[in-house]
Write a structure and sequence with these properties.
heterodimer, A: mainly alpha, MetI-like fold, 11 helices, about 75% helix, B: alpha/beta, Rossmann fold, 7 helices
Chain lengths: ~220, ~230
């Protein structure tokens, strides 16, 4: 097994999961509770990676991070090297690609909270941020954990976007799925099978955990 | 302190809630059939629904004024609201529900106030349990205690006893009367039960299709309303 690729993928998935925890929860909150009529447009943008071919997303991210783009120029001026084909580029691309996996379970959990509970909190003198921390987060914790697990699992198995943006640099951008592809190209099916089986088992365990978590322990208890 | 309410708001039933009244300390019953605008009236006073026009004040404090563009956030109004379905927080114990609005106080003071009101409402034995683990009457008293412990300037109750048996209703009504005698704030109590109106109300406002069609003591108003319906 390619332990370097596995370690790199785990590092990438961990960082992307944490970044999306910070970004995804506020986006999910806004999508759930904002009264704006045009929020369906933002919902569509967030969900876009679900239907977009990874190569299309990867291509535009590559262009967006290239040396001719404002982001690429700023990065080069700051670090002295380009952003494309680096680990940081993988983090940015994976964050965009996994956005719906982080946002949708959390938004779904937020939407199931009875609004009367939030109104009750307000009439008890508690502001919005504190209501979020004391009511919304504890009652949505399963959805938040499900979002984290799905993001981690999805990032771990990425192929197309990673290949477009990161290429195949061992120890830098060569993730576990690219390692499997390389082994198959070299007709090394035994090594490919070992890594693929590991990913398969992990994905199954992750999905089982998500399904177990998204059962709602507070269902039917509201107002009770 | 008096609660002054002048509000106008189009309702989904095709009519307009259009009221103008002042509630003095004591229980004012808001009486009327389903869909007459009672709940919307309470929600507008609490800031949970935004009226189109009007002004709501408690004493000199302006909560809403459409002319000046003032609308105080519900969390800053000091208006207590007991919801029809209580809206107890299911993931918190009864004690944590009661303490919920006291977070600006230190822990000892929170505990002291919670214990005091729990004794007063006879729910001290269930403080460690979650809402699902206690009876309907106990939940109702936890809901009342949770609101009253914050010492609101105005109390709004939206059919708080409708789901309870008569014995439990009587007990909670006497709890509420005792509390009202001690605190003397304006209380708006929405019901369509004549029994509750007679038992609790000093004054009854009858709401019909968004308008106040009668205003007086329970004896004056309810008899006439019953005769007409």
């Amino acid at each position: 097994m390619d332990w370097t690729a596995i370690a790199l993928s785990i590092r990438l998935a961990t960082i992307v999961s944490l970044v999306l925890l910070v970004l995804g929860v506020p986006i999910a909150y806004w999508l759930t509770f904002s009264p704006r009529r045009w929020k369906f447009l933002v919902e569509a943008v967030v969900a876009l990676p679900l239907v977009l071919p990874p190569t299309v997303l990867g291509f535009y991210v590559l262009v967006g991070l290239g040396t001719r783009s404002p982001i690429g120029r700023a990065w080069t001026a700051w670090t002295g090297h380009g952003l494309a084909f680096t680990f940081e580029a993988l983090v940015i691309a994976s964050t965009l690609y996994s956005l719906p996996f982080a946002v949708q379970p959390v938004a779904s959990a937020f939407a199931q909270i009875d609004r009367t509970l939030l109104e009750a909190s307000a009439t008890l003198g508690v502001g919005r941020l504190e209501t979020f921390l004391r009511i919304i987060v504890p009652m949505s914790i399963q959805g938040i954990c499900a979002g984290l697990i799905l993001t981690f699992a999805h990032t771990l198995g990425e192929f197309g976007v990673v290949l477009m943006v990161g290429g195949n640099l061992p120890g830098i951008t060569r993730t576990v799925s690219i390692s499997i592809y390389d082994e198959v190209q070299s007709l090394n099916f035994s090594a490919a099978n070992q890594t693929a089986l590991t990913l398969l088992v992990f994905s199954f365990v992750a999905l089982a955990a998500v399904n177990a978590m998204t059962r709602r322990p507070w269902a039917g208890l509201h107002g009770a | 302190m008096n609660l002054s309410v002048r509000l106008r708001l189009r309702l989904s039933g095709g009519f307009t809630l259009d009221v103008d009244f002042t509630a003095t300390p004591g229980v004012t019953i808001v009486f009327g059939e389903s869909g007459s605008g009672k709940t919307t009236l309470l929600r507008s006073i609490a800031g949970l629904t935004r009226p189109e026009h009007g002004r709501v004040t408690i004493g000199d404090r302006v909560l809403y004024d459409s002319v000046r563009g003032t609308s105080v956030d519900p969390s800053l109004r000091r208006v207590g609201f007991v919801f029809q379905d209580l809206a107890l927080f299911p993931h918190l114990s009864a004690a944590q529900n009661i303490e919920y609005g006291l977070d600006k106080l230190d822990r000892d003071e929170r505990r002291r106030r919670t214990a005091e009101i729990a004794r007063s409402f006879d729910i001290a034995d269930v403080l460690g349990r979650r809402p699902k683990q206690i009876s309907g009457g106990e939940r109702q008293r936890v809901g009342l205690a949770r609101t009253l412990v914050t010492n609101p300037d105005v109390l709004l109750l939206d059919e708080p006893l409708s789901a309870l048996d008569r014995k439990t209703q009587s007990r909670i009504m006497s709890d509420l009367q005792r509390w009202n005698a001690e605190h003397q704030i304006p209380i708006l109590y929405v019901t369509h039960s004549t029994r509750e109106a007679f038992a609790l109300g000093d004054r009854v406002l009858v709401l019909d299709e968004g308008a106040i069609v009668a205003d007086g003591t329970p004896d004056q108003v309810i008899g006439q309303w019953a005769h007409e319906h």
